[in-house]
Design a protein that fits this description.
GO molecular function: fucose binding; metal ion binding
CATH architecture: Sandwich
CATH class: Mainly Beta
Subunit structure: Homotrimer.
Largest sheet: 10 strands, antiparallel
Protein name: Fucolectin tachylectin-4 pentraxin-1 domain-containing protein
Family: Belongs to the fucolectin family.
Mean pLDDT: 83
Distance between the termini: 21 Å
Keywords: Calcium, Disulfide bond, Lectin, Metal-binding
Number of domains: 1
Oligomer: single chain
CATH superfamily: Galactose-binding domain-like
Low-confidence stretches: 1-34
Number of strands: 14
Radius of gyration: 16 Å
Length: 183
């Protein structure tokens, strides 16, 4: 499945199935390699609205691993609360091309349904008021789902559930161009 986006008259396809580690490759529509999108989340500062378990688990979604077993310490988990959120501070404003999230493997896959991905410059209330990049309709156990943010700009990337629920997140990849001049 490819996602097309336009910037400064150039058309590129982000190929969701073409991975090298956690780097996504960017190709021109004619299929010629033109660069890559880097996952900048691991360099960010994570935070969340509450802690169900250890406060150390907040870093699990940006550890670069797609392993997704909460019981093995591979995911972040909030308490059951209104509007739970998990956020990564990218330390500066960036152009976000895509965000991919990984759901929990061993339990409770439906809890993430309805989650919203938000990108912006406000950290107030975890960034839940920032512009929306996408909404999770449904995810399977251990599934990784990618959202095209179409070049949204922001320092903070947040996932939130707009209801009373637990939020479990096992991985978040925030991709921006390795060479922004291509755009």
């Amino acid at each position: 499945k490819s996602i097309a986006y336009h910037k400064k008259g150039n058309k590129y396809n982000v190929l969701a199935s073409l991975f090298k580690g956690l780097e996504r490759h960017m190709m021109k529509s004619d299929g010629i390699y033109s660069g890559k999108l880097n996952n900048v989340a691991p360099q960010g500062i994570p935070s969340q609205s509450s802690y169900f378990g250890s406060k150390l688990e907040v870093r699990a979604p940006i550890d670069g691993s797609l392993r997704s077993n909460y019981m093995a310490g591979e995911c972040a988990h909030t308490k059951k609360e209104m509007n739970p959120w998990w956020r990564v501070d990218l330390k500066s404003k960036m152009v976000i091309q895509s965000v991919a999230i990984t759901n929990r493997l061993e339990c409770c896959r439906e809890r993430i349904n309805g989650a919203e991905l938000r990108v912006g410059d406000s950290k107030e209330n975890g960034g839940i008021g920032n512009p929306r990049c996408g909404v999770v309709n449904r995810m399977n156990y251990g599934e990784t789902l990618s959202f095209d943010c179409k070049g949204m700009e922001g320092q903070y990337v947040t996932i939130t559930l707009p209801n009373r629920e637990y939020l479990t997140l096992c991985e978040m990849q925030v991709c921006w161009p390795a060479n922004p001049d291509l755009l």
